[in-house]
């Protein structure tokens, strides 16, 4: 009997030891924000001496709740709005009321909600700003009248939510989209690629997504209050709180410390720069003073893209921004407005510039060798981005014909607009002077043009440029550029080609407008005639010096942009874009001396072989 008691006591001790060694299981769904928060919890627990098992990136909300109720998960980040939907409660936009309701309804399930972490991760419908502005869409209700001509992109989980998902949203607003593209939840961030490439018109976003700020997206207003407040907190099993008594104090360290700006910054490091969520969480906790050690963020060289002040991240620059993010994930890519983007590249203030083809030329003079305006030396086109249109506006309401204008307002000297305006004056032999204006952003540029005192304004910008839209909204009319092809302008200014703007481009146009177009390209410093840096260039290609891009960098950018067209031959192009010419086969006997040397080598080899096999003489 005593032996049985001893065995039972030993078994009990073993069981107690096993329970004591059971780790804290920390989980998260697949969004970058959830993974970062879960890693913060796991790192703080490990720092407190708690053994941690990570189950991060599990899947849907239903799966997370089921795993937690089975006791296989102890803690994970969740949102109050989602919690309301999980138990069938009506949505509320009051964060305090939402937190109180989920706390009360989850208590019988032996689950506890922590205090809010400090940020909300609301669902939102996001559009490119220029697209939303062109259509006049600011709210979900504004979207209703256009939905039947637009394509919506969403993650799979959102389509499955019965209370606050896709179908309830469409029913609440009475929306019917022309097409709905659904991707797996794990691939939800790929929707932004479709938005930037304009395969999608609108996407279902999370407010913590870093792409919202990076690409300057417009979040539409949920004017009927369909979505509840999705306030971030931690959902915890009561059993875990009993087993790990240090857990409440550990969680309190994060309470109220993570705001929306912080989470967008952290998710950008994961989604745009390819950093590991655990490394991001660790460096942030160290910076907050919650973990000991040094903040070790990898050094990131800055890659500045020079753009016109009238360009915006959600307009023509967004494709370039995304392409360089993808091509150089270890660089800190940023847009920098300059009055003359190419001059900024030459001065080393930016690494590349987004410019129209006219920026490469210097109108007002003629190169005798070509009969065309001379090229600005020192630049080359490295990638085709799109098309720029010449927009000629009547600033004077009485102006009907561009030829009657005596003063034409445009951008700073050296800018694409200024050079296009000078080409227009030279090509049409206009008796007008150029009035230059400067501004720091698109709306201020529109105001400066209106205040210039000129009768007309000329902009060389892609469709739906923000300054163009601002002038159209102000009631300024677009003027036709007539007579361009009647002389030798196509030969003298080959970078400008006739085109037409219609109501399909701008709904306010009652009749087609004749205009000119040019290629929109990414430009960089040109390779010198005697290439002193070699075909592949220096290893650090993005130092703030006017050095050419390496061949590899040019190919990476073009692969990321995925443009099918070719750069106009009139523009100087990077060597990496030149076609590989076939090389003739070398002659079998290029020279007599080579043939004689070959024969001697063969004779020597034969002699050495004979020495190896000859009979041995004693």
Account of the protein in words:
The structure is a single chain. This protein is 35% helix and 18% strand. The chain folds into 3 domains: 19-119 and 232-287, D-Maltodextrin-Binding Protein, domain 2 (3-Layer(aba) Sandwich), CATH 3.40.190; 123-219, D-Maltodextrin-Binding Protein, domain 2, CATH 3.40.190.120; 304-577, 3-Layer(aba) Sandwich (D-Maltodextrin-Binding Protein, domain 2). The strands form 4 sheets. Strands 11, 12, 13, 14, 15, 16, 17, 18, 19 and 20 form a 10-stranded mixed beta sheet that branches. Strand 1, helix 2 and strand 2 form a beta-alpha-beta unit. The chain is flat and about 85 Å long. By secondary structure, the protein is α/β, with parallel strands linked by helices. The protein is built from 23 helices and 20 strands. Helix 4 (80-86) packs across helix 5 and helix 16 (318-327) crosses helix 22 (551-561).
Please supply descriptive tags for the structure shown above.
five-stranded mixed β-sheet; 3 domains; D-Maltodextrin-Binding Protein, domain 2; alpha/beta; 20 strands; ten-stranded mixed β-sheet; 618 residues
User: In CATH, what is the homologous superfamily of the largest domain?
Assistant: Periplasmic binding protein-like II
User: How many independent structural domains?
Assistant: 3
CATH architecture of the largest domain: 3-Layer(aba) Sandwich
Structural category: alpha/beta
Number of helices: 23
CATH class type of the largest domain = Alpha Beta
Rounded radius of gyration (Å): 32 Å
- N-C termini distance: 95 Å
Major β-sheet annotation: 10 strands, mixed
Q: How many DSSP-defined strands?
A: 20
β-strand amount = 15-25%
| Broad shape | flat
Q: Which stretches of 5+ consecutive residues score pLDDT under 50?
A: 13-20, 531-545
Q: What does the average pLDDT come to?
A: 85
Percent range of helical residues: 25-40%
Q: Under CATH, the topology of the largest domain is which?
A: D-Maltodextrin-Binding Protein, domain 2
């Amino acid at each position: 009997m005593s032996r049985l008691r001893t065995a039972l006591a030993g078994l009990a001790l073993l069981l107690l030891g096993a329970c004591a060694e059971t780790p804290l299981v920390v989980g998260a769904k697949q969004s970058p924000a959830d993974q970062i928060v879960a890693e913060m919890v796991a790192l703080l627990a490990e720092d407190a001496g708690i053994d941690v098992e990570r189950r991060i990136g599990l899947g849907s909300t239903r799966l997370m709740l089921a795993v937690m109720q089975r006791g296989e998960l102890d803690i994970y980040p969740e949102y109050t709005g989602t919690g309301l939907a999980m138990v069938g409660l009506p949505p509320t936009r009051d964060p305090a009321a939402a937190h109180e309701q989920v706390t009360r309804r989850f208590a019988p399930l032996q689950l506890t909600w922590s205090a809010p972490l400090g940020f909300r991760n609301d669902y939102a419908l996001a559009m490119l700003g220029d697209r939303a502005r062109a259509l006049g869409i600011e709210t979900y209700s504004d979207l209703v009248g256009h939905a039947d001509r637009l394509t919506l992109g969403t993650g799979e989980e959102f389509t499955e939510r019965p209370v606050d998902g896709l179908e309830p949203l469409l029913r609440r607003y009475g929306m019917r989209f022309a097409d709905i593209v659904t991707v797996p939840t794990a691939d939800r961030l790929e929707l932004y690629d479709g938005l930037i490439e304009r395969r999608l018109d609108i996407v279902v976003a999370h407010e913590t997504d870093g792409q919202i700020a990076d690409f300057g997206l417009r979040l539409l207003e949920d004017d009927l209050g369909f979505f509840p407040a999705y306030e971030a907190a931690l959902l915890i099993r009561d059993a875990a709180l009993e087993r790990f008594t240090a857990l409440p104090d550990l969680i309190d360290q994060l309470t109220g410390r993570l705001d929306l700006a912080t989470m967008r910054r952290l998710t950008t490091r994961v989604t745009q720069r390819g950093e590991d969520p655990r490394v991001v969480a660790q460096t942030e906790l160290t910076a907050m003073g919650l973990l000991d050690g040094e903040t070790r963020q990898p050094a990131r060289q800055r890659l500045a893209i020079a753009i016109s002040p009238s360009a915006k991240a959600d307009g023509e620059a967004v494709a370039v921004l995304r392409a360089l993010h993808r091509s150089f994930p270890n660089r800190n890519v940023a847009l920098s407005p300059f009055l003359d983007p190419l001059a900024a590249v030459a001065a080393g203030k930016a690494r590349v510039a987004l410019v129209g083809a006219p920026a490469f030329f210097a109108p007002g003079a003629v190169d005798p060798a070509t009969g065309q305006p001379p090229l600005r030396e020192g630049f080359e086109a490295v990638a085709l981005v799109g098309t720029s249109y010449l927009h000629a506006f009547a600033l004077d309401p009485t102006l009907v014909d561009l030829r009657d204008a005596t003063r034409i307002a445009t951008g700073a000297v050296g800018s694409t607009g200024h050079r296009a305006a000078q080409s227009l004056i030279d090509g049409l032999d206009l008796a007008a002077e150029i009035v230059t204006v400067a501004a720091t952003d698109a709306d201020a540029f529109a105001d400066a043009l209106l205040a210039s005192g000129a009768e007309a304004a000329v902009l060389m910008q892609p469709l739906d440029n923000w300054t163009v839209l601002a002038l159209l909204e102000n009631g300024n009319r677009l003027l036709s550029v007539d007579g361009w092809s009647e002389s030798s302008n196509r030969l003298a200014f080959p970078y400008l080609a006739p085109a037409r703007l219609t109501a399909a481009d701008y709904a306010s146009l009652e009749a087609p407008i004749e205009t000119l177009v040019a290629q929109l390209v990414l430009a960089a410093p040109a390779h010198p005639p005697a290439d002193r840096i070699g075909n592949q260039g220096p290893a650090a290609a993005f130092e703030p010096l006017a050095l050419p891009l390496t061949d590899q960098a040019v190919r990476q950018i073009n692969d990321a942009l995925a443009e099918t067209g070719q750069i106009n031959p009139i523009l100087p192009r990077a060597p990496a874009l030149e076609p590989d010419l076939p090389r003739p086969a070398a002659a079998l006997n290029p020279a007599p001396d080579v043939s004689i040397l070959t024969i001697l080598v063969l004779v020597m080899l034969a002699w050495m072989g004979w020495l190896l096999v000859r009979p041995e003489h004693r």
